[in-house]
Amino acid sequence: MAMLATFWIVLLVALNAPAGNGQSVQTDPSKSGFVGDTVELRCVFINGKPPVKISQVTWQKLINGTKQNVATANPDLGVSVLPPFKDRVSFKHPAVRQRTSTQSAPSTLEDTTIVFSNLRLSDEAAYICEYTTFPAGNRENMVNLTVFARPVTQMTLTSATIVARTPKRKIPVATCMSANGKPPSIIKWDTTLKGEATFQETRNPNGTVTVRSNYIVLPSRETHRQKLTCIVTYHTDRFIDSVILNVQYEPEVKIEGFDGNWYLNRQDVKLTCNADANPAVTIYQWKLLNGSLPNNIEIKNNTLFFKGPVTYEFGGTYVCDATNSIGTRSGLVEVNVTEKPMPQGPPGGIFGMLGVVVVAGLIVGVVATICMVYRRRQKPRTETDNDLIAVADSCLTKPEAPGIEAPEKPESPTRTDLPPAHKPAPPPPKKKSSDMKSGLTSDEIQVVHLDREYEIQKIPLQPPYYDMAQSESTAFTDKPVSSAAKLIAVCPFSFFGGFIEKRCLGSGCYGAHLLMHVVQDELPSERCLD
């Protein structure tokens, strides 16, 4: 009974103790490092007031919900590290590493940060730092440790010798591999070579990933000596490596030397068998289709020398067989022998230049013709035209007679109303004397507004026209028109050859014709006819 009572007393004291009372355990939320590196896992106890007593600190590894002890620190028993971590885990501060505490040097357990050295992939887990205190009880916090693994990257040719065979087929020519990386790497190819890449990821038992990429091309003469670059990206690291493809292929044969102008008695002619091959050609063989080679021929390496002057015997189809370790390919040329040399025309470049000059001349001629036609249609004004416009302006600006309203503007006369350009226009029709003496009313006056700019551009002026004939009913007079202040100019003018007609209105000017004689380089002079 006494023991049971003691137990309940202790329990009540523990329950009544202020929970937390300011005590807490501080850790980093997460830490990370690479395989082989060293990393610190921080753990600090924040004591309260009144402070509690720390009985023990324990670091534990949490694996699939199960806790595994890593290290402990006890003020009385000292420090203990379990075997799996003994050589790689230690407490950071020397005060914690003291085996026992004394009155002169008490053990300090407020900071129990541990140091992981030589990290392994198996160290990746969640770690718990737990403080046992009295009377506050246990306080703990957790930190997640992530372990990365740098990959091993390399680039190799799939084969030291790549052969372009017939029939052609695509094959992998280079491999780029990033092995045992965590997380996996990213592989890219950089090349001007036309091809395609394949990618494959393999997850290893230890949690790493191996990435493998092959570059596939169609081997040919064009792919020989092409550069292929592999770019591997892992975190902030970048790996770049390149290889030069070595592609072996059959010879590509071409015979040179025949210029199409082999004529009788020509000297020093030859045929050369040029072959592009990898590896190099080892054997050249010459032959003549449907016959045998001429007697006066000398073969040196890949060249066929013809001794002496050219004869008809040199004509025929020559074949060159080039052989390397991959295969044999042939080239041929047909030689024709003529009696006389072929005429040598000007080089093609000269013909091209002549063609350009001819085309340019045609273009210039067409443009010039268009400009001339346009200029003829758009004839510029002359000084006489400008003088006529000035007279017309003065007529249009004169005041109208009192009580007379200007009629509406009629349509402008067209070019069909004008007289032929080869002779001057006839004089205006003559009026009877009875009409001259009768008074004019406002209804009889017609005001015609003419678009003078349009007429001046469209109607060329004729030489000055002087009508010296006297009217049958009226006599010519130089007397000024009476009541000039009341004179009204009726516009626009009627253009007839070289004079302008306008009608006068006012006392002493009824029925009179006012002729404006246009003289070259002079302003028009006004004369009234009674």
Description:
14% of the residues lie in helices and 37% in strands. It has 530 residues and is mainly β. It folds into 4 domains: 21-148, Immunoglobulins (Immunoglobulin-like, Sandwich), CATH 2.60.40; 152-245, Immunoglobulin-like, CATH 2.60.40; 249-338, Immunoglobulin-like (Sandwich), CATH 2.60.40.10; 379-530, no CATH class. A 6-stranded mixed beta sheet has the order 2-11-10-5-6-7, with no helix packed on it. A 5-stranded mixed beta sheet has the order 13-20-22-25-24, with no helix packed on it. A 4-stranded antiparallel beta sheet has the order 12-14-17-16, with no helix packed on it. The termini are far apart. The relative contact order is 0.07.
Task: Describe how the helices and strands are arranged.
Blueprint: H1 2-16, E1 24-27, E2 30-34, E3 39-41, E4 43-46, E5 53-63, E6 66-74, E7 78-81, E8 89-91, H2 94-97, E9 114-116, E10 125-134, E11 137-148, E12 152-157, E13 162-163, E14 171-181, E15 186-190, E16 196-203, E17 209-217, E18 227-234, E19 237-244, E20 247-256, E21 262-263, E22 269-278, E23 283-288, E24 297-300, E25 303-306, E26 316-323, E27 328-335, E28 337-338, H3 348-377, H4 383-397, H5 433-437, H6 452-458, E29 494-496, E30 499-503, E31 513-517, E32 525-529
Parallel strand pairs: 2-11, 13-20, 21-28
Antiparallel strand pairs: 1-4, 3-9, 5-6, 5-10, 6-7, 8-9, 10-11, 12-14, 14-17, 15-18, 16-17, 18-19, 20-22, 22-25, 23-26, 24-25, 26-27, 29-30, 30-31, 31-32
